[in-house]
Design a protein that fits this description.
CBS domain; 135 residues; 5 strands; CBS-domain; two-stranded antiparallel ribbon; three-stranded mixed β-sheet; alpha+beta; single chain; 6 helices
Length: 135
């Protein structure tokens, strides 16, 4: 049964994270180097304060260029602060529903309010594929 498969079974645990003070271009370079489309932004206590996506980076570059300002700044100036998360024990079907409902590419995975991983749409597809193969 697919509902027995949990987010924590397929999430990534080795995460690239940023702080609000991270230089925007440093963050862009990290996204490119690690071939990821976004990463959580953590506050001083390790709490999630935002997400930085490729779209956020492009929006920052376009906005600053349009206003003829110097392109750059800090992650905190350009990150998305509306963060959708998923609990570590959420079943994979609930995770898929969250992706469809909120049109997200990735979701931070929390346990007792702390970030322990991140799950992507690709991770969900991998879980479904493996479940189908295993029968």
């Amino acid at each position: 049964m697919m509902r027995s498969v949990k987010a924590s079974d397929y999430m990534a645990t080795q995460l690239i994270t940023f702080t609000p003070d991270t230089d925007l271009f440093e963050a862009i370079n990290q996204l490119l180097e690690h071939r990821i489309t976004g990463a959580p932004v953590l506050g001083r206590e390790g709490e999630i304060v935002g997400l930085l996506s490729e779209a956020d980076c492009l929006k920052a570059i376009l906005t600053l260029t349009y206003h003829e300002e110097e392109v750059g700044g800090r992650v905190g100036d350009h990150m998305s602060t509306e963060v959708f998360t998923i609990n570590h024990d959420a079943d994979i079907i609930s995770v898929a529903e969250e992706f469809i409902t909120n049109k997200r590419r990735r979701l931070p995975v929390l346990k007792n309010g702390k970030l322990i991983g991140q799950i992507s749409r690709r991770d969900v597809l991998r879980a479904v594929g493996q479940f189908a193969q295993d029968g």
